[in-house]
Design brief:
single chain; alpha/beta; six-stranded parallel β-sheet; 29 helices; globular; disordered C terminus
């Protein structure tokens, strides 16, 4: 696992690190660069914008640019400031510059550079020492919420903290936060007005206690440079040349700081790729990259499209993804050209259920390792961290070592530990727990216990920690369902023992193993073999990506995942969640026209391809197009709205009396079965029935949530109620 680019132009040591002999002179710095990289390296004056695709050697190009300028005597090392976004990237840049004989150049993150300046100038501007830097703002946010009499659980606390960070980097003050959320179509984790209150109190407490946070470092530096022209000129006198890496990820606040550093000069080189913008939820925007030529009409534009990382087969897939993209970023996409020898074709795999997908992935990984691919050069990438557990288990069962990146191990997550403790207590003292009085089967017991920890029948809207917590708890519910299917007589105590065994097996230390990571956490990394898993509608794109802009960012996220692979790329999806479940899932729309047997969007048959690949399954599945609102005709993506066949905001023609009769009948059925009411039908399904008033089995079966088993078990009763008939034998069990 390395961020270095593999190619004959980039010699490497046995540990994967770069070997670069110190160049003899300025011309030697240019040796080994391709024509476009050389063009970047020799463009030392005026504004330069480098559009660099994945794997094209952008870091090599910009570090050689700086080194060439220094060795040629055009740039003074101390006059150059190179900024990027992570300490790892900044460290890599400094290392390369030292190898090229330019160790005096400053290569820092935005925050690191601003903090040094703030510490130096604070005594002169304000007096005294710089206020203490608040390393973890969560505790202060928690106190702020308490003072506002707003109760936040641990996950909401993390999400609200993220919202405050977003507000600050977009230069949004507390009073304007609700309006900014509405304008940006963000899914706030709480009522925006409440978050605005917490944000205002947080700022007040910081002032009272003379502390600042990381966002304040940028804000205060911007404030000083705006108010004190003498200090701004002093900084501009020191730094004459600026280089910004990953420019597509700059926030409005970082862009403002860069402008103040530069003043009216134009010795700026920016490097970025709009097709890799995947952090808009943190305030990042590609607009500054896309508008660079407008702000700097004389800018030199250079495109790096020679891909030294991936085989032609991987590059072809990556290009195909972007060819279907829409929006402004897509208009500036780069068509990559692989510089490597041909490799294996991408592998597309459809599985019956998620455990089968995980087991199949583990088998293929084991085969690759047996064929000589190091485990550390293999990655499994998924959309959300909650997907990791089934792959952790499958790899452990297959004897394949693994490591988690960007997330805790599943059984080490706080919510999973808390859920385990609750289940253990229920198993031990369940006979005295009124919570379990009305539930008899194991999955219902687990749902009842986990409902006290935040699990609900319907997932929360939006993204973030609340959703991650729910997904973790939902994974435990699914595990219980699968466990009892394999062992029908299993008790809650048996399940707890199973959880303990799984946790113990997965805590075995691993030194070198397959990387499990979310797609976001994989940015900037690369492996010989990459497995992209769980590629179904609702997960890719994620269900809460509703606007065109949000969907396009999901496409870019998949693009980033594909371009992490050097040689082997595997893409897979499962038609149902659990073994024996209804095969109702569809492969992601992003692969339509790319995977075998599917049609490109907009062509005849595309709907069938998007609906699950009928061509791959012998045409046995019914072709289904997009679900449209029966009121306004809008394409529906939300699961709840798809059940109702209408937008949430569109007027309902539901028969209220019928709905109440259905609810009463459901309550009776649930009591007879000893299960929660939602196990019969969810509220949304009952609403859909009361709105459509089906007259026969066919009409009833078309309602989402009415599967074959439920149709067989409850269909006659539901149709009788819809027809206004009295039910006979209400008190009899099925």
């Amino acid at each position: 696992m390395t961020a270095a680019t593999h190619s004959p132009l980039f010699p490497q040591d046995s540990d994967g690190s770069q070997i670069v002999a110190p160049p003899r002179d300025a011309d030697a710095v240019l040796d080994g660069l391709d024509p476009e990289q050389r063009e970047v390296a020799t463009a030392l004056h005026g504004p330069v914008c480098v559009l660099a695709g994945a794997g094209t050697g952008k870091t090599r190009a910009i570090t050689h640019r700086i080194a060439y300028g220094v060795r040629a005597g055009i740039l003074q090392p101390a006059s150059v400031l190179a900024v990027t976004f992570t300490n790892r990237a900044a460290g890599e840049m400094r290392g390369r510059l030292r190898q090229l004989g330019s160790g005096g150049v400053q290569a820092r993150t935005f925050h690191s550079a601003a903090l040094r300046q703030l510490q130096y100038f604070w005594p002169k501007v304000v007096g005294g020492e710089l206020p203490r830097l608040l390393e973890r703002k969560v505790q202060l946010v928690a106190e702020s919420a308490a003072r506002c009499r707003i109760r936040l659980d641990r996950n909401e606390l993390r999400d609200v903290t993220g919202e405050i960070e977003w507000a600050k980097v977009t230069q949004t003050v507390p009073a304007d936060y609700p309006a900014a959320v509405a304008k940006s179509h963000r899914d706030a984790p709480r009522d925006p007005a409440e978050i605005g209150q917490i944000y205002a109190m947080y700022e007040q407490l910081k002032r009272d206690r003379s502390v600042i946070d990381f966002e304040d470092v940028l804000l205060l530096t911007v404030g000083i440079l705006q108010d004190r022209h003498d200090i701004a000129e002093q900084i501009r006198g020191q730094y004459q040349h600026f280089v910004v890496d990953e420019y597509q990820d700059v926030s409005p606040l970082q862009q403002r700081l860069l402008e103040l550093w530069m003043g009216d000069r134009e010795n700026l080189c920016v490097v970025g790729d709009a097709s890799q913008t995947i952090y808009s939820f943190t305030g990042a925007t590609p607009d500054h990259l896309l508008n660079f030529r407008t702000r700097h009409p004389s800018a030199k534009m250079v495109k790096l499209v020679r891909d030294y990382r991936s085989t032609p087969q991987v590059v072809h897939l990556a290009n195909g993804l972007l060819n279907q993209a829409r929006g402004r970023a897509a208009e500036h996409r780069l068509e990559l050209i692989s510089q490597r020898d041909a490799g294996p074709e991408p592998v597309y795999s459809e599985y019956a259920d998620e455990p089968a997908e995980a087991e199949g992935t583990a088998r293929r990984i084991r085969d690759l390792i047996a064929a000589g691919v190091p485990a550390g050069e293999i990655a499994v990438l998924y959309r959300i961290n909650a997907q990791s557990e089934v792959y952790e288990q499958a790899l452990a069962d297959a004897g394949v070592p693994y490591q988690l990146r960007g997330a805790e191990r599943f059984f080490e997550r706080q919510e999973v530990r808390e859920a385990g403790a609750a289940l253990r207590g229920a198993a031990r003292f369940g006979g005295n727990d009124s919570l379990l009085d009305d539930v008899v089967d194991l999955p219902s017991q687990v749902r009842a216990v986990l409902s006290t920890k935040g699990w609900t029948t319907e997932p929360p809207t939006g993204s973030g920690a609340v959703r991650d917590r729910w997904e973790s708890l939902a994974a435990l519910v699914r595990l219980a369902e699968d466990f009892v299917r394999a062992k029908p007589e299993a008790t809650l105590g048996d399940l707890v023992a199973e959880l303990d065994e799984r946790a113990a097996a997965q805590h075995a230390p691993t030194v070198q193993g397959v990387t499990l990571a979310s797609l976001h956490a994989a940015k900037g990394l690369e492996w010989d073999a990459v497995f992209l898993v769980g590629l179904t509608e609702g997960m890719m794109p994620i269900t809460y990506a509703k606007t065109d802009e949000q969907v396009e960012e999901e496409r870019r996220l998949l693009y980033v995942g594909v371009t992490r692979a050097r040689l082997h790329i595997s893409l897979s999806w499962a038609l149902s969640r659990a073994p024996g479940g209804r095969a109702s899932r569809r492969p992601t729309r992003f692969l339509s026209g790319l995977r075998p047997g599917s049609s490109a969007p907009g062509t005849r048959g595309a709907g069938a391809a998007a609906a699950g690949g009928a061509g791959e399954r012998g045409g046995r599945r019914k072709r289904r197009g997009p679900v449209l609102c029966r009121v306004c005709g809008t394409t529906l993506t939300d699961a709840g709205e798809m059940k109702l066949m209408r937008c949430e905001g569109c007027p309902s023609d539901m028969d209220e009396a019928l709905y109440e009769r259905l609810r009463e009948w459901r309550s009776d059925q649930a009591k007879q079965l000893g299960q929660p009411a939602y196990c019969v039908f969810t509220d949304k399904t009952l609403m859909a029935i009361a709105e459509s008033v089906p007259g026969d089995d066919g009409e009833l079966s078309r309602i989402s949530g009415v599967g074959g088993r439920k149709l067989e078990r409850f269909g006659a009763d539901v149709l009788a109620i819809c027809a206004g008939e009295e039910l006979a034998g209400d008190d009899e069990d099925d």
